[in-house]
Amino acid sequence: MTDMTRTDAERLLERDPVIRFSWGNLTSRLDKAQLYAWEPQFREVLYETATGLELDDGKLAAALQTVGLGIFRPDAIAAGKVDTILDFYARLGTEPFFAVPVVMTKSVVREVWRYQLNAATGELLKMFDLLYEASPAILALFRTDPCEVPVPCSVLMADAKGEADPGDRQGWELRSHLGSTNRIEVFFHTADEPVDVLRDGGICLGPEGLAAALRERTGPNVRDRIRELAQEIRSAHPGRAIRREELFPPLARAWPAGEETTLDRWTLLRHFGSLPAAYAGRDENLVGDSGTDAWWRQAGLLHGRTRYLESRVGNAGPERPDGDR
Q: Which terminus of the chain, N or C, has less C-beta within 10 A?
């Protein structure tokens, strides 16, 4: 006799059931559910997760809402900002339970941000390449206690992170605290909603890899493991100077006036991040709205969101823009 209380995981390899399950459970946006359901790998991720966790639909959705995904980018690792990020999110009530180094190849970067880079300029794409080729990143999964946090973990982490554009921040957010001064050097990526945890994690780890990671229990040493990974990566990738002739021609032409023809990668990215090309296409993204507002509205906290988040993280002043690099 079929146990109808368990998720019928096989149906999650088909587009329409994926849309029906994702919308409302994993994302507040129907358009996002529809776009992701067209992706064979996303359907496989959802299938592998449902199979691995062996939960009925309601419990599966609830479990995924307690999980957030963050990527400590090469700029954060090089600048020694990993501890600050961990401490910031600890104050929000998140706890990392899985961490692994990941190589963010060009194809991975293009796929993770497919719906944000669809209108990107060539300059912006090459800025991302200059960033992610510096070293591996660290992908971490976090959990929150649903009795303590009124919205999904991913939503909490995304809205506390702050906008990429410094002009859209209020000053208390993670990226302001880290000293981010432009849209490129922002140090930390988070999945916006539970559906993005699955998509981003599936791209970086593979469907089976993410499903296995989601079965991990929170351990006492994951924070230390993240710190160790960051130190190992930083030691193995001390950085190198970039020659002007190496760059995509439009970036080479935008080389800082009066500077030598060889410069530090991070100096260049900070300069390029202020260029108009770094902002191009932002109003033409296929997925331009994170979808987080609806979760706060559902919790009755939409208008009190900033006050809630700021009270959790405190109002510490920002670091120096260059950290301790």
A: N
